[in-house]
Design a protein that fits this description.
Blueprint lengths: L3 E6 L4 H15 L3 E8 L8 H4 L3 H16 L3 E7 L23 H15 L3 E5 L8 H17 L3 E5 L3 H7 L14 E4 L4 H10 L13 H6 L3 H8 L1 E5 L11
Parallel strand pairs: 1-2, 1-4, 2-3, 4-5
Antiparallel strand pairs: 5-7, 6-7
């Protein structure tokens, strides 16, 4: 029986990096896949060439391209401002509020409205650390949990970032809390082409002004056997403890 799967992410490119294989597998199996992104990603790292052209608009176009690669049926952006990763959050831009400053209940009701409209069966969101402590990712967890309760979404799955990766990526000023164990593992090896294409659709995030290539660029250029070992499975924690497969 076809399901409706809604993935809630913090920034453009998170959908591809963290859940691209799962979303592509679900779409290929005939399920309806919806993507909601909280922020405009305007503080993402990039080269001056992209930054000068208005990064929020660039990243919105990249998000739509990524969604096409993954077979996503609907894309919504909530339009909040990127909060950044530093210890001190910048002031809000004119006409926007940084996502980490938005009252969780306010953002949750906007997400819940989409969950209800879609009659979503599954919500993909983040763990309480947001994976590695980014304030926008932590806010995704808070907002997603509230929205799922409000919309009575039957199942919530939290993206599981390995402890090793979380320690490497987390800012120095962030302390990570214990997280739930992985209960659902999705084999996405047959959908790596779509995942890589979606990652590379975020062209602004592949470039910098430095001599060294960005991590996302290097990752997508790895030999297929290595890529398969690193990205061939996507892992989730079900707060209910269920290990029922997501995409049989």
């Amino acid at each position: 029986m076809p399901l409706t799967l809604l993935a809630f992410h913090a920034h453009p490119d998170d959908e591809a990096i963290l859940t691209g294989g799962t979303l592509a597998r679900a779409a290929a199996a005939g399920h309806r896949v919806v993507l909601v992104t909280a922020t405009d990603g305007a503080l993402g790292l990039t080269s001056t060439r992209y930054a000068a052209s208005g990064l929020a608009g660039v990243r919105a176009a990249e998000l739509r391209d990524s969604a096409r690669q993954l077979g996503i049926a609907r894309v919504e952006q909530l339009g909040y401002a990127d909060s950044g990763l530093g210890p001190v959050m910048a002031p809000d831009p004119a006409g926007q509020v940084r996502f980490a400053r938005v009252p969780s209940a306010e953002a949750a009701e906007r997400l819940a409205a989409i969950l209800r409209e879609e009659s979503a069966d599954v919500l993909l969101t983040y763990d309480p650390n947001g994976g590695y402590g980014h304030p926008d990712h932590v806010q995704v967890h808070r907002v997603g949990a509230l929205a799922a309760r409000s919309a009575q979404t039957p199942r919530v799955l939290e993206v599981a970032v390995s402890a090793r990766v979380a320690r490497v990526m987390k800012p120095r000023h962030v302390r990570l809390a214990p997280v739930l164990p992985v209960t659902v593992v999705v084999d996405v090896r047959d959908h790596l082409d779509a995942k890589v294409a979606a990652m590379r659709a975020h062209r602004s995030q592949l470039t910098s002004d430095g001599r060294l290539p960005r991590n996302i660029d290097m990752l997508t250029r790895l030999p297929r056997p290595v890529l398969s070992r690193l990205l061939g499975w996507e892992r989730f924690a079900d707060p209910s403890g269920s290990s029922e497969p997501l995409c049989p």
